[in-house]
């Protein structure tokens, strides 16, 4: 009984049972984390996180294997794992994209990086830390999403439409006027439609505004730019 416990807890690092347990734990962690991302229809979902965690775990085990077999008493087990941390940065960057004035995928990118770390932790045989990190990550993604939504709901979603004479003023000037109220207005999406025949353009801004923000003040500031045909907000 004691030999089995010793094997599982990692006293025999390269024992087949130890390796299998570490791989199983890494895959399980990737499953739970990936399932949470899959529920939110993220591009990096269940399979991505499972494979990622498995790969990191394998590299960590290999980091022990190479010095143990080829250079006993020497070698640096941390060298391969350091490359995993660097390489995952490129994979995470692929999950980030810009949509209008919003940047999306940051949470998924951070989750990818953290999942690789958890896989490495299990690969190193630190089961307690791996389990706690997995639980904390899933709880953070689940619980704090609701907290974040509650905080965001303190601002109303509004659609601001400004029709302006495009020959005389640029959309950037109008956006700069809106951005001066960054504390009260959070720009989410911007679109511009041109009317070549009438030399006008429609700037449509989807944003969140504080309930007590003075829309009249914003209207006055935009009108002061001149060459504004119409302003409305929904």
Describe the structure in your own words.
This protein has helices at 2-8, 16-39, 46-70, 78-93, 106-123, 127-152, 171-179, 215-223; strands at 97-99, 102-104, 155-165, 185-195, 200-210, 228-233. The protein has two domains: 2-151, no CATH class; 155-233, ACT domain (Alpha-Beta Plaits). The longest helix has 26 residues, at 127-152. It is an alpha+beta fold. It starts with a helix and ends with a strand. The radius of gyration is 26 Å and the shape is elongated. The strands form two sheets. A four-stranded antiparallel sheet has the order 4-5-3-6, covered by helices on one side. The protein is built from eight helices and six strands. The protein is 57% helix and 19% strand. Helix 2 runs parallel beside helix 6 and helix 5 runs antiparallel to helix 6.
Number of helices: 8
Number of domains: 2
Largest sheet: 4 strands, antiparallel
The radius of gyration over CA amounts to 26 Å
Number of strands: 6
**What's the pLDDT, averaged over the residues?**
80
Strand order of the largest sheet: 4-5-3-6
User: Quick one: overall form?
Assistant: elongated
End-to-end distance, in Å? 70 Å
Broad structural category: alpha+beta
Task: Point out poorly predicted stretches.
Answer: none
What is the helical fraction, as a range of percent?
A: 55-70%
Strand content: 15-25%
SSE pattern:
HHHHEEHHEHEEHE
């Amino acid at each position: 009984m004691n030999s089995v416990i010793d094997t599982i807890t990692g006293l025999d690092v390269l024992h087949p049972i130890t390796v299998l347990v570490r791989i199983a734990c890494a895959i399980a962690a990737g499953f739970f984390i990936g399932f949470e991302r899959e529920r939110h229809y993220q591009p990096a979902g269940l399979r991505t996180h499972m494979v990622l965690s498995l790969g990191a775990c394998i590299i960590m085990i290999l980091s022990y294997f190479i010095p143990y077999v080829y250079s006993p008493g020497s070698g640096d087990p941390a060298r391969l794992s350091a490359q995993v941390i660097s390489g995952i940065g490129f994979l995470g960057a692929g999950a980030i994209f810009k949509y209008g004035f919003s940047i999306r995928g940051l949470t998924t990118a951070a989750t990818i990086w953290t999942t690789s770390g958890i896989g490495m932790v299990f690969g190193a045989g630190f089961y307690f830390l791996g389990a706690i990190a997995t639980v904390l990550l899933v709880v953070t993604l689940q619980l704090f999403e609701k907290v974040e939504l509650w905080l965001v709901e303190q601002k109303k979603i509004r659609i601001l439409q400004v029709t302006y004479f495009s020959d005389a003023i640029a959309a950037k000037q109008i956006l700069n006027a809106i951005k001066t109220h960054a504390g009260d207005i959070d720009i989410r999406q911007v679109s511009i439609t041109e009317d070549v025949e009438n030399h006008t353009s429609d700037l449509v801004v989807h944003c969140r505004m504080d309930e007590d923000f003075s829309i009249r003040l914003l209207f006055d500031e935009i009108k002061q730019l001149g060459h504004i045909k119409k302003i409305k907000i929904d």
